[in-house]
Amino acid sequence: MSTDYYKILNVDKGASAEEIKKSFRKQAVKLHPDKNPGDKTAEEGFKKLTEAYETLSDPEKRSFYDVHGAAPSPGQRQHRPQPEDFMSSFFGGNPFFRDMFNQGNASSVNADIEVTLSLTLEEVFKGCNKDITYEQLQPCGICRQTGSSRGEMPVTCKQCNGSGRVIHTVKSFMNQVSISTCNACRGTGRFVEYACRNCSGAGVKSVKNTLKVSVPAGINAGMRMQLSARGNHGLQGTAPGNLHILINTVPHDIFTYSNGVLYMKLNITYPVAVFGGLRHIDVFGDVFTYQLPRGTDHEFKIQINGRGMPNPQNGQRGLLVLKTNITIEKPQDLSSEQQELIEKLQQLFEQKR
Ligand SMILES: [Zn+2]
Ligand SMILES: [Zn+2]
Which of 52, 227, 274, 348 lies at a CB distance of 3.0 to 4.6 Å from 243, suitable for a disulfide? Predict the structure, then answer.
């Protein structure tokens, strides 16, 4: 008597491949040996379920089963994703499996490109135009992205079902799998009979591309600019992905820029700290004066609105924070007159005590 695979998988005879997969997934979670250690009934159930899925998920085997009531004998097995492999993806194994089963073929992989652009804070303050050079997959000029020397459209690779990878299963109850790039399509997931020589059948070629990019003033480290359709062109003539430009800033001696606030270190001498004084502040060419109060402490913070970085959205200048830094001169850097005066000052301080 033959086993009813449909009943095991809890689906109708006319169930679609998707329904079968869904139902298998659901039951496999319950019955997987990792979840039921030592449970013989669950283990047996899982084996039967796997066997049923292996047959019904393969259109050829399924039609054979529908006619003969049994799975075909393992004569001409192809490299296809087997249920065991599927399980390893399902239980948090290799993320590659997840991609493969959930997203389909390789043609959608890596369409977006990310490049990092380093800017000085002066460039951030003023905005700038920059050349960005990056590797981009562009349509092959000879075959117009078909990958074929004769112009015919590619078909899904039969060897790997369009995944671009082949999974080899080493037989044991638990999964032992290895993955390799599909030989037939060289990982593209598609296949053309007469491959274009210029692109070796890929339909796209890696080209060094240079773009002029206008960077708005005020954009800060960690922000991204997106240029649509400047990413990689797809392998099957699909639309290109996007180019993401990640902004990075070069450290500056006296300025830092964080959370929309521009901080500036303001060096002052001891006498200025004591008596206050008018200081010239230079923010990347924007020069203005600021009156320091008498008795200014070290690392005292002064907030000035409208003198900071421009907002990248509307160009309005934000907050500038001056942070005082009282500088101490080395004796050898002082003139003899300065030395004398400071020595005198020291004596007076000593007397006071
Ligand atoms: Zn070509
Ligand atoms: Zn292939």
Answer: 227
Tell me the C-alpha distance between 120 and 217, whole Å.
11
- Per-residue model confidence as pLDDT tens digits over 238-266: 678 999 999 999 999 999 999 999 999 99
Ligand nearest the Cα of residue 143 is 1
Residue 241 alpha carbon to ligand 1 centre in Å: 19
For residue 203, the ligand closest to its alpha carbon is: 1
pLDDT of residue 341: 94
Residues with C-beta atoms within 5 A of ion ligand 2? 157, 159-160, 182, 184-185
Cβ-contact 31, 51 below 8 angstroms: no
- Per-residue pLDDT tens digits for 321-335: 999 999 998 999 999
195 CA from centroid of ligand 1 (Å): 8
Q: How far is the CA of 139 from the centre of ligand 1 (A)?
A: 8
Helix (H, G, I), strand (E, B) or coil at 90: helix
What spacing in Å lies between the alpha carbon of 199 and ligand 1's midpoint? 4
Mean pLDDT of the chain, nearest integer? 82
**Pairing assessment for the beta strands 320-326 and 261-268 based on DSSP bridges:** parallel
Task: Using the predicted structure, report yes or no on whether residue 109 has a pLDDT greater than 50.
Answer: no
- Write out pLDDT tens, residues 66-98: 877 777 664 433 333 333 333 333 333 333 332
Distance 111 CA to ligand 1 centre (A): 18
